[in-house]
Amino acid sequence: MAPDGQVLTREYDPAKAPDVHASEPIPEAARAEIERLLASGDLFRYTAPEGAPVALLEAEFAEVLGARYALAVSSCSAALFLALKALDLPRGAKVLIPAFTFAAVPSSIVHAECVPVLVEVGENYRVDMDDFAAKLQDGDAVMISHMRGHTSDMDAIMALCDARGIPVIEDAAHSLGTTWHGRNIGTIGRVGCFSFQSYKMINAGEGGIMITDDPEIAARAVIMSGAYEQNWKKHPGLQNSYCQWQNKLPLYNLRMQNLSAAVIRPQLPALQDRVAKGRAGHDRVADVLNACEGLSVPAPLPAEARAPDSIQFNLAHDWTDAQALAFQAAAKARGVTVQIFGLSEGNARAFWNWEFLGPAPDLPKTRAMLMRACDVRLPTRLTDAELDFIAHAIAEAAQAVMGGGRKI
Ligand SMILES: *Cc1c(COP(=O)(O)O)cnc(C)c1O
Hints:
Blueprint: H1 29-40, H2 53-65, E1 69-73, H3 76-86, E2 94-98, H4 104-111, E3 115-119, H5 129-136, E4 141-145, H6 154-164, E5 168-171, E6 179-180, E7 183-184, E8 191-195, E9 208-212, H7 215-226, H8 239-245, H9 258-264, H10 271-290, E10 295-296, E11 304-305, E12 310-315, H11 321-333, E13 339-340, H12 364-372, E14 373-377, H13 384-402
Parallel strand pairs: 2-3, 2-4, 4-5, 5-8
Antiparallel strand pairs: 1-9, 6-7, 6-11, 8-9, 10-12, 12-14, 13-14
Helix pairs in contact: 1-9, 2-9, 3-4, 3-7, 5-6, 7-8, 10-13, 11-13
Residues 75-77, 101-102, 104-105, 145, 147, 171, 173-174, 195, 197, 208 line the site of pyridoxal-5'-phosphate (PLP).
């Protein structure tokens, strides 16, 4: 029993646990536009002479993020691949990535015929800067995944990369709305890539977008995304660059279609509200977990203001695998699903499961972190009561494993 009885006296009916997988409805404003597109059949981004929904989305997204160019594509993975191709890296180029990321990230590098180099990630889910600096000696490019929106030290990363002229791509798939020194994540490196897959801040089922201030990268990416013949004329920017690259680059056809843009555009004005709610909800749960023996939520880096729609926390070092699994089961019994990245079979975020890369490298820090790092979805639509249900179910599960006792 907890000495103050505060947590254990709560009633937990797992059937009353909030559904963290259901999505929010798409704003009503999308309906009229979708109806118009269905009625006219105008679904291809390059059919209309101007004002196609995909082109409008690109202009609006570039404006919201503060970037010169935006290119909407079929997924964030497609954007990452195009970013590598647009950088014109030679075959076999070494691309540094954090070893804690989603399998689609090293996959995009393999697709671009480059070689991913996995960098250690610390207990705070961020790139280990000593390992990064060492591996950068032999690197040609860097792709920083801000995994679950946790931002690595972009000041240190950019200083090291700029000093050696190494391009940085930001995988901001799950970081839309996060800022670093007040500046939008995704605008710090040479290219930033975002996802509109259903589990991200803006939901179109599938979709992605890349942003850059570099006209050559923008022109190359636009052509390779599938702006064949003169279709690049429907993109703003330096038309000379497009002329130079037309027919010189392969067409990978990774375009977004108009229906996706019609789903995304009315969600853009809701972004700041979702970010504020996500941050408040995360911090509300984090306060409860940090007061709980055996659980800790790593602090953000000082320059970072996150836009979370989930929470990550660590189990104490001295917990065994059996205790970690018992904790997971105890949370499940209370209706809350906790993913422990390294303890779930075939997890796509555990680097040793990326068998397509060959034998897993030795990364003891990242491995130790993944074996104790927990992940719980906290969609930004949750109410305070729902957040409290989740927080206290997790705290109670930890107490059940620890045999009671709170830090404070
Ligand atoms: C979701 C995600 C991706 C992949 O995005 P898709 O749009 O599904 O291709 C890549 N990196 C991170 C960090 C993600 O969270």
